[in-house]
# Entry
Amino acid sequence: MSVLVNKNSRIIVQGFTGSEGTFHAGQMIEYGTNVVGGVTPGKGGQEHLGKPVFNTVEEAVKSTGADVSIIFVPPAFAADAIMEAADAGIKVIVCITEGIPTRDMIQVKNYLADRDCRLIGPNCPGVMTAGEAKVGIMPGFIFKPGRIGIVSKSGTLTYEAVDQITKAGLGQSTAIGIGGDPIIGTSTKEAVELLMNDPETDGIIMIGEIGGSMEADAARWIKENGTKPVVGFIAGETAPKGRRMGHAGAIVGGKDDTAAAKKAIMRDCGIYVVDSPAQIGKKMAEVLSTSSK
Amino acid sequence: MNIHEYQAKDILKSYGVSIQEGVVVDDNSKTEEAVKALQQKTGTDWVVVKAQIHAGGRGKGGGVKLAKSMDEAKQRVNDILGMQLITPQTGPEGKKVNKVLIAQDVYYPGNSEPKEYYMSVLLDRGLGKNVIIYTTEGGMDIEEVAEMHPEKIHKEWIDPATGLQPFQARKIAFNLGLSGQAMKEMVSFVTALYKAYENTDSSLFEINPVLKTSDDKIIAVDAKVNLDDNALYRHKNLAELRDESEEDPTEVEAKKHNLNYVKLDGNVGCMVNGAGLAMATMDIIKLSGGDPANFLDVGGTANAETVEAGFRIILQDPNVKAILINIFGGIVRCDRVAQGVVDAYKNIGDVRVPIIVRLQGTNAEEAKKIIDDSGLEVHSAILLQEAADAVKAVLS
# Structure
């Protein structure tokens, strides 16, 4: 089963013919992902990477039955692309684009509020269900089908966790990169909830970073509703206050969004928190072997 | 992006927000002219000399002074201009003052007592909406107010579909205890302030204090504005307000190479692809007994050029005793990065600190071989734990 995307997902690529879109759609197809077409306004009717190109998402949905979209369009046009996908009835919208203005995302969030769809990202590495569907830019070869779900704000740190899980002799169900911007479509808590309810996931890795309150919210939810072990890590213990650490959302604003504060809340809520990012995979293997005894 | 008080006030004024008027000078020879112009424009007798640096708490560090005569004004400008101003936000080394704002005195006597308030507009990340935060406790540190008197802090959330409504502006004015002309002035003030915030794609407008003058005007006496970097492409005029002299020179140089660099105080430099992994690498350095000397994200396309630029930037810091390069090659091929490291090392020629290179992902084994065979004093690693152990070993 896994969550969000699987081998039956019908995926379109917005920004299909651009350089980013072309490269990553190619990688997705190579992984075996069911890409059914793409959208580039003005290039409808053409064929790209052996798939049909459409002018609008609506047309693409009508002709291909697409239910998932991945967005590679530049920041100035990305908010529009998300709303177009939602309007066309796409159920899972994955936005990779980095650098969308916050004001645009406020509009998007409001637009999506009463629509039946889920946005992942923006500024994220995408969603990947091991062995089934790669809807994003994560390197496919580090994944191995298995039963650990991963939720993370960060790209390469997600890869690090995936790789450690594989090397620990475990494997992944679905890895969800939720994105590092101040406003994102799916929160840590929502992503954790999806995995908690997934019968094919036995354990969850939750990776966060400084800034905002999403990890604390997720931790409190886990305390009340958790049924599976969760291993957590928060990046940025050594980050200074008030400085933006790469991600637009990664900034310590007060005393509640430091790494130390988040980790303390997570520990209180029963999450297995590691201080070293090198111990994520090992810790999960340890926790699973103790809990199965 | 941060801007100066005088720049922020220019923006506010252009949207119809009343401000404490002022003239900015960068040389004391211009003080007399500035004071006269200001007196003519506002009728002010006294003036306030305010240091223009990108940090709060300027008054506490002696960067804001009242002057009651022309001679005093010149003396104050002389004292403040060029000083190394230390405030709670600048760190112990302080910041050099290159410009001062000569501003009108707005605390003049009149029919009523002047009263200070606090107001800011910012994003509520959890709700995905903008919020106006305000309190009657103006002129104080807002974090202190939140601690001591949380009940005195009010919040007004703005619906993205409709924007700020008149009833909300009225509510704010009444909650601040205003009536009559002052209440009307506050409604205009809030309305114009929110418009300025939204139209400039800002991420923070903080007006502390907002002042009700003795003749019932509402004005912004100070202004702290942060602009959304992601939106600067559509505000060319605002992008030009960047003052590079306020930023760390190494950070400015890094930006030119499209590197995301933040200078820190530690002894182990690092170079990483991806912001999250970069922060995690800083944490690893700490756990290994060192302190991170920087945050450096080389982005998704780590190549020989970016690696060399990153190297040069890190090596400018005399505190750096070792460098950890941590690249997780997803799309990027590790063997190419490894070759880039070797080439950069040879190009720079004079690398006197040990280098630990951890390359994982596509072609990691080949990459390790390139490093090991290079004959350079570079330690290679594949697993993150190996890199952590190597850092510990070179530091001890």
Remarks:
- Chain A touches chain B through 63 residues (CB under 8 Å).
- The first helix of chain A runs from residue 19 to 31.
- The mean pLDDT of chain A is 94.
- The longest strand of chain A covers residues 145-152.
